[in-house]
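Per reviewer request, we include the raw input and output of the structure prediction for the construct analysed in the revised manuscript.
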Amino acid sequence: MTAREIVLALPSRLKTEEAAGQSGTFHFKLEGENGGEFTVNVANSVCTVSEGLTGEADCVISALSSDFEDAEEGRVNKQMAVMMGKIKISNLGAMLKFIGMFNELEAA
């Protein structure tokens, strides 16, 4: 899957029971051929994804689209990608909450 497809598929991976009572706005800035800029909103157990950056983000995630794809597809360890600076996260606490609301990407 491309980085764009991974982000656009987030609503189908939402764990509604984990998202109950949670809310947040996340900006994804994924550079490269298969990336783009996206706003992901979670509120009332619903996740929406829109192209472009709208609103004020609780957390900004920046990466090359290829590095994001590698982390999501399990080719590299997500924590290592963050520690090595391949994926930049502006608010770790918000990101950890975000990760808990979604199922892992199914291995292809």
